[in-house]
Amino acid sequence: MSSSASQSHADSRTSLLIVRDRPSAGGGIYNYYQAIGRYQSTSPQYSDVGRSYSFYGTHGDKKVSLTPLRLLLDSLALFAKILKLRPKVVLVNPSMDPPSYRSLRRDALNVLIGRMLGRKVVVFWRGWDVSAVGLPVFPGGNKCLLARIYKMAAAQIVLGERFKADLLRWEFDGPIHTETTVVPDECLAAAPTPLGTEKLRTNLLYLSRVEIAKGVFELLEAYQILKKKNPAYTLTIAGDGPDLEALKARAQEMGLADVSFPGYLSGAAKVEAYRRGGVFCFLSYTEGMPNAVLEALAMGLPVVSSDAGGLKDILRDGENGFVLLPKHDAPMKKKFEPAAVASAIERLVETPELHDRISTINWRYARQRFAAPVVAKRLDAICTGAVSTESARSQNRSEAATPVGVK
Fold this sequence. Notes:
Layout: H1 3-13, E1 16-21, H2 27-36, E2 45-49, H3 67-85, E3 89-92, H4 102-116, E4 120-124, H5 145-150, E5 155-158, H6 161-169, E6 176-178, H7 185-190, E7 203-207, H8 216-229, E8 234-238, H9 244-253, E9 260-263, H10 267-276, E10 279-282, H11 291-298, E11 303-305, H12 311-314, E12 321-323, H13 338-349, H14 352-369, H15 372-401
Parallel strand pairs: 1-2, 1-3, 3-4, 4-5, 5-6, 7-8, 7-10, 8-9, 10-11, 11-12
């Protein structure tokens, strides 16, 4: 191989450095890059950040529990990797997470490191607190130092049009792209044809992190209503999380001893849970773009879901299932009316032709929009475009600062 070819190969291997959650820090972001990495023409490298959570599994990680030490080590690792790899783009994945702003502050430092070392930075916003939508959520205001740091990025990526509207309102003037998360290959391969006609429609499935804000307590209430009408209903709540034990206790109090809690699922076990499911239930109060819903679509499950976050852009009521709107002023565990949830599920279960039609629609839709090769190609285009866009912006700023008549 010639020296020029070797250099070209080296450039392609280091053109993108992704700052992502470590395997045990958060399932969604880590799994997103695991799914699309093999299809990216940029051949990305990674720098891991974030806290460890037991319910995601360690995946071989060495956990660092002391936050200051972990932040220092993660920052030094990113600094060293940028110096070594010289990537054209550093891709950062923060969440808008008031009131703690933990992720927001952490990744602001990562943006600064990338810019300080002369790299183009792309910010891919993940979690987005629904209570923050439309509000000046940066601590100190939307022109404070923290906001200005994020505005240094060459491009922004969001998971919903409502989030793009917020960034525009907060005077982010660079390119803002709306993207989705991804369906991993294992789900696509497991459902080569729509599975709707093979499913036992009364098998209800929730598969995600188990916490109050995911609407799991309202789902239990709806299940109790359905179970009294038809004993054939089953409910599986797959996943782990901070409120799992409280949810199990609540199910026992309600006399719902048949609810299945298999815990955190991955790989073949996760695919089998989707295969057995008849209706996917997801009543989250706040989201970015949940991978679990996309996976359920790809496996041919009709959904009964909220419109949280980016779900508003991808789900159509009556087309992908039924979309229910939360009562934002209601207390936690009461955001959704259980009778309305039960009614939506019942319509899908008791109308086979509707269930099967939606199953086929979801199966096709997921492959067209959320398959890993499709998503990887879109992300590569954004990152590649950020280099030329930032260069053009810099040139325009330079020209604007040059006095008239000076060349």
